[in-house]
C-alpha cells in the first residue's frame, strides 16, 4: 500500500496507550467485527511495535453495544446493567484483536477489569507492566470495570496507572475539528489544543472524565486518523499527525 511512513520509524515514545473504538473493527456500517479491518489494524500495530515501543491497547465496544444508547432504547434494562453489557462487548473485541495480533507474530495478553478468568487475565498493574517489559502487547478489556463511563476514561486512567507517555486516540477523521467535518465542510482541523480549549469549546475529543483526568495529570492526547495507512506508526514515532492536546 502507499502512504507508508517515508523513513524507517524510530522510537519516540517508550510506552503508549492506543485507544481503538469498537467501530474501528467493523466494516463501514459500524457493526460487528470484520476480519479484514481487524487484520489491517493488527498489521499496523505490529509495525509500530517493531520500533520497540511498549503498547497497551484499550478497545471500545460501540460496534456491539454502548450502555447509554442501549438503556435509552430499552426500558427493561437498567442503565448500569447496560454499561456492564457494554464492558462485555469490549471483551469480545479484545479477544478478536488478540488473535488478529498473534496472527502477525506478536505475543499478547488480554487483561480484563472484570474477572473472566477462562478467557483473560484479571488486570493487575504490576503484571501489566511486566508483560510490557517482556515485549507483549497488552489488550485491556472491560474498561475500568465500572459503569457510567466509556473506554476513553479507561484509556486515560490506564495511561496514568501504567505511566504511558501519551494516549493515542485512533479515529476515522484526521483529528479534532471545530465542528463535525462530516456535516460541516467548513470545519477547521486543529493542530494543537490545550485541555482548557477542549473543555471551553466543548470539543468532542474524549468523554469528559477522560479529559479531566488527562488535564489534571498533564497527560498528552493525540487524536489521529488510523484509516490512513501508516498513521499508527507515525503517531507512535512522534511524527506530526492529527491533533495534539496537552
Ligand atoms: N463501559 C463502561 N465502563 C467502562 C468502559 C465501558 O460502562 O469503563 C461501557 C459503556 O456503556 C460504553 C460501552 O461499555 O458505552 C462500550 O465502550 P465505548 O462506548 O467506550 O466504546 P467505543 O465507542 O469506543 O466503541
Automatic annotation (TrEMBL):
Gene Ontology BP term (one) = 'de novo' CTP biosynthetic process
Localization of this protein: Cytoplasm
- EC code: 2.7.4.22
Against PANTHER family, the record matches this protein to: URIDYLATE KINASE, URIDYLATE KINASE PUMPKIN, CHLOROPLASTIC
Q: Which domain of life is it from?
A: Bacteria
Binding positions (UMP): 61, 144-151
Q: Which UniProt key words apply to this protein?
A: ATP-binding, Cytoplasm, Kinase, Nucleotide-binding, Pyrimidine biosynthesis, Transferase
Single GO term (MF): UMP kinase activity
Name recorded for this polypeptide = Uridylate kinase
Instruction: Note the subunit structure.
Output: Homohexamer.
Q: Which organism is it from?
A: Novipirellula herctigrandis
Pfam families linked to this entry: AA_kinase
Please summarize the record's notes on activators and inhibitors of this protein.
Answer: Inhibited by UTP.
User: What does it do?
Assistant: Catalyzes the reversible phosphorylation of UMP to UDP.
Entry's Gene Ontology cellular component terms: cytoplasm
The record lists the membrane-crossing segments as: none
Q: List, for all copies, the residue spans of the domain called Aspartate/glutamate/uridylate kinase.
A: 14-225
Q: Where does ATP bind?
A: 19-22, 62, 66, 171, 177, 180
Where does this chain mainly localize? cytoplasm
Amino acid at each position: 500500500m502507499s502512504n507508508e511512513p517515508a523513513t524507517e520509524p524510530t522510537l519516540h515514545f517508550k510506552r503508549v496507550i492506543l485507544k481503538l473504538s469498537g467501530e474501528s473493527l467493523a466494516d463501514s456500517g459500524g457493526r460487528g467485527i470484520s476480519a479484514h479491518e481487524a487484520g489491517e489494524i493488527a498489521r499496523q500495530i505490529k509495525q509500530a511495535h517493531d520500533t520497540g515501543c511498549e503498547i497497551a491497547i484499550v478497545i471500545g465496544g460501540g460496534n456491539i453495544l454502548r450502555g447509554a444508547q442501549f438503556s435509552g432504547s430499552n426500558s427493561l434494562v437498567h442503565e448500569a446493567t447496560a454499561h456492564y453489557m457494554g464492558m462485555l462487548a469490549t471483551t469480545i473485541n479484545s479477544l478478536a484483536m488478540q488473535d488478529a495480533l498473534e496472527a502477525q507474530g506478536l505475543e499478547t495478553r488480554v487483561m480484563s477489569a472484570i474477572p473472566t478468568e477462562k478467557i483473560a487475565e484479571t488486570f493487575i498493574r504490576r503484571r501489566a507492566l511486566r508483560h510490557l517489559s517482556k515485549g507483549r502487547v497488552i489488550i485491556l478489556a472491560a474498561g475500568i470495570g465500572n459503569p457510567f463511563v466509556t473506554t476513553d476514561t479507561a484509556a486515560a486512567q490506564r495511561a496514568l496507572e501504567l505511566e504511558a507517555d501519551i494516549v493515542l486516540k485512533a479515529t476515522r477523521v484526521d483529528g479534532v475539528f471545530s465542528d463535525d467535518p462530516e456535516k460541516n465542510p467548513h470545519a477547521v482541523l486543529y493542530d494543537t489544543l490545550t485541555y482548557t480549549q477542549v473543555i471551553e469549546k466543548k470539543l468532542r475529543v474524549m468523554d469528559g472524565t477522560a479529559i479531566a483526568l488527562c488535564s489534571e495529570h498533564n497527560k498528552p492526547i493525540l487524536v489521529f486518523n488510523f484509516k490512513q495507512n501508516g498513521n499508527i506508526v507515525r503517531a507512535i514515532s512522534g511524527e506530526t499527525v492529527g491533533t495534539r492536546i496537552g
